[in-house]
Amino acid sequence: IESGRKVEAGEVIFSTRRKIEGVDSRSLEDAVYAFGFGPLCSYVKPFGEGHINETYAVYMPDQNGNDVPLYVLQRINVNVFKNPDQVMDNIFGVTEYLRNIIRQEGGDLDREALSYIKTKSGETYFEDDNGQPWRCLHYVANSICHQQVERPEQFYQSALSFGHFLKQLGDYPAESLYETIPQFHDTVKRLRDFKDAQRKDVKNRARKCKPEIEFVLSREDDCGVLMKQLEEGKLPLRVTHNDTKLNNILFDADTDEGLCIIDLDTIMPGLAANDFGDSIRFGASTAEEDEPDLDKVHFDINLYDIYTKGYLEMAKDVLTPAEIASLPWGARLMTLECGMRFLADYLQGDVYFKTAYPEHNLVRARTQFRLVKEMEEQFDQMNEILKKYI
Ligand code: GN1
Ligand code: MG
């Protein structure tokens, strides 16, 4: 963790019962105490697959003395989120708002929205001795997370969940939200940042990814398609999630129904097309985001069809005709933008996304560009499919 030996995923790294050799988990232990668990906690394990924050599950004994995960502790990445207090203000505001709706509708408060807890001293997060922020939320019991669509029904469920989320937050006061990452999905700005990274080429890696750089540069005009419509007032800003990957939803472990949207760090005013598009980028692929064998990576138009159906079933009434028409572009642009971000990070020496090996970001960029290319080839069909569900 902070120092000491590298910890394997799933391995216990902090335990109130035994000392773990070679692992310096002091900040984690301090966080466990700051949220009031102290000796109640049996142990803590790394948890989840996020690329940004450090996430741990906190285990405690149940009535039968079996250790079960009850809380999730997360160290917020301050390199990415410069103002953790603003991130947490957004999250507390949105989760309380969602919980009120669920309460009124008689839903399951423990499982349909996240619930964050404050520190013993009433703060929304704990700052450790190194100045790193930690936050804590309840673990959602009997839930699972999918890294890839295993059955099409799961993707349909995720479309319902994200469509529902957009609707639920339809009247949320957008002006009260902080912009936690400025211009997060401003694809034109992302392209500028990309070109900057390419020009500086601080790691001398540009020579290793010439075709990928060319792929981005030849799509300069595409980057502005949605931003232009926003500037011209043709597309409205809504409260959006901005990171709508399949693995940012919890599913019910028994029924596999969409249960709860997670990863709320980037809730900000944004375009509906981007939320729709990011789901397609991640979920309508036949392979994982970092599949090294490109022969396995394809855009699955049937999955696109299924997601479009579910999303519009939920959100059709609240979206304007121009917004609905913009959805296929959202898929293309979120995929291009994400690939651009991976490639820029590769060129900058992997300073943003967590990586497991030196070419990891390049491998990720390649899968995204493969998907973009196939979406471009099938763009007419994507638009035809959309029409079926209007
Ligand atoms: C990051 O944290 P995670 O893994 O849910 C990133 C998204 C990218 C995604 C790519 C704050 O999301 O924007 O689309 O990786 N989040 C941030 O997998 O940059
Ligand atoms: Mg996530």
Automatic annotation (TrEMBL):
Residues 128-298 form the Aminoglycoside phosphotransferase domain. This is Phosphotransferase. The lineage of its organism: Bacteria, Bacillati, Bacillota, Clostridia, Lachnospirales.
